[in-house]
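In this supplementary section we document a worked example of the pipeline. Step one takes a protein sequence of length 85 as its only input; no multiple sequence alignment statistics are reported here. Step two produces a three-dimensional model, which step three serialises into structure tokens for compact storage. The input and output of this example are shown verbatim.
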Amino acid sequence: MDLRQLLDSITPEIYESLKRAIEVGKWPDGRALSDGQKELCIQAVIAYDERKPADQRTGYVPPKSAACEPAAASTEEQKPIRWKE
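The serialised model returned by step three reads:
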């Protein structure tokens, strides 16, 4: 079985199980993941995620407006801040 066939065989249930195993460091039966197993699980999750639209991937953060864009025009007049003494 090559990598493509392996990735094709991952179901959404297996994907969720792999993510959970990475999170808690254990397989569903309670056995600890070795460092090598954790690394392979992470690679499988990343490869599986690559097949999804960007906004459905693990860790997706929607873009914010650019910092240099002007703020939306306010209907209220801006007032200076007054500090209490």
